[in-house]
Amino acid sequence: MQRVIHLRTMHLGPDELLLAAKIGVDADDEARDIAATIDDAEARVRAAVPTAKIIYLEPDIYRPDTVASPS
């Protein structure tokens, strides 16, 4: 995993959190490695935030902004 591209959370109740994130991966990463990374990330989130009951992690190729900043 390169980075978290964006992350959103929503409280569904006092003890229930939904977490959705787009995860940047390398273009040459293999599917099994991406799946293992996502499984590991889910386990780490659940351990750190027990109220995170629903977790959606979407892999995507990270593309930094290619628009040049004005001088």
Question: Which keywords apply here?
Answer:
single chain, 71 residues, alpha+beta, three-stranded mixed sheet, 44% strand, globular
Written account of the structure:
The protein is α+β, with helices and mostly antiparallel strands and 71 residues long. It has one domain (3-53). The protein is 25% helix and 44% strand. The chain has one helix and three strands. The protein has a three-stranded mixed sheet, covered by helices on one side. Strand 1 and strand 2 (16-25) form a beta hairpin. The protein is globular, with a radius of gyration of 15 Å. The mean pLDDT is 87.
What does this entry show, briefly?
With 71 residues, the protein is of the alpha+beta class. The chain has one helix spanning 31-48, and strands at 3-13, 16-25, 52-61. It has a three-stranded mixed sheet with strand order 1-2-3, covered by helices on one side.
The end-to-end distance, rounded to whole angstroms, is 33 Å
Q: What's the helix-strand series?
A: EEHE
Q: Pick out the low-confidence regions.
A: none
Count of helical stretches: 1
Overall number of structural domains? 1
How many beta-strand elements?
3
